[in-house]
Amino acid sequence: MPEGATGLTSAKVDTEKFRLRAFVAALGPDELEIVEQAVELADLTAHLDGNAKAILFRAVGPEKAEIAGNLTASRSRLALAFGVAEADLLQEVLRRLDTAQETIEIDSADAPVHEIIRTGDDADFTALPVPFQHGRDGGPYLSSTLDFTFNADAGLTNVGCRRMMIRGRREAGVDLNAPSDCKAIYEAAVRRGETLPISFALGSHPIDHVAATMRLPVDETTLLANLRGETLPLVKCVTNDLRVPADAEMVIEGYLDARGHVEIGR
User: How far apart are the first and last CA of the chain?
Assistant: First the structure.
């Protein structure tokens, strides 16, 4: 059980309140634009760029998937995420950082993120509606993943936020060139000759994104709980021992290759 977790049962924690879908559903027309017509993946950016509102696309790509964007692109929407007036946002964040909350581990059967589990050949990046975002990107990106790793030296979970570039059915890349906690944890694992498990939450509440941008010497799952202002439900991953928010829309599990960025010779 991760540091800060308790023995509370899953019946005592709300696994729906901090779903991303609940946040989007609560946005009014002043904050949210809804695009009902079918949109191609290549056309998402044209709707998002320069748009002051968050956007919910109802039918994207051949999958007719729902995709939301621009959710954290305004101070007013961040204030709504924290449930305060815009002028009170900073003070509320500071108050929550100073107020300890619990994390608890719940059963997989009680975790919304585990309602559908795909492993083996069924775990396929190309089955996801992943758009190109910028003209000079090297590939399509999942743009708002939160990454979870375990710092074995400190005994703490680290949470970060970075884009993930899809490279194939079972392979993706993230930027670990810039200094970061994740980079340090990865390099320490390589020195020990160990593979570093990593899990990415896709579709997280805006508060979780705020937490992921902070660098504090704590178990950062407790940081998520503190900023939410309530107990955080965690669930053990399917293929590794990491604990991730049980109310994320999706979690992608894998590992960081000890070889770094490699390509098959041709």
Answer: 45
Question: Residue 91 belongs to what H/E stretch?
Answer: helix 89-97
pTM of the predicted protein model? 0.91
Phi, psi for residue 140 in degrees, rounded to 5: -75, 150
pLDDT tens readout for residues 177-236: 888 999 999 999 999 999 999 999 999 999 999 999 998 899 999 999 999 999 999 999
Q: Which amino acid is at 208?
A: D
pLDDT digit string, tens, across residues 25-43: 999 999 999 999 999 998 9
Determine whether 158 is exposed, middle or buried from the number of CB atoms within 10 Å of its CB (0-12, 13-18, 19+).
Answer: buried
Could you give the C-alpha distances from 128 to 22, 46, 61, 122, 149, in angstroms and in order? 21, 20, 10, 12, 23
Count of beta carbons in the 10 Å neighbourhood of residue 5: 19
**How many helices, marked H, and strands, marked E, lie in the chain?**
7, 12
Greatest CA separation for the chain: 57
CA trace torsion 46, 138, 172, 245 (10° rounding): -30
Q: Which helix (H) or strand (E) is 65 found in, with range?
A: strand 65-69
Q: Quote the CA–CA distance of 90 and 84 in Å, as a whole number.
A: 10
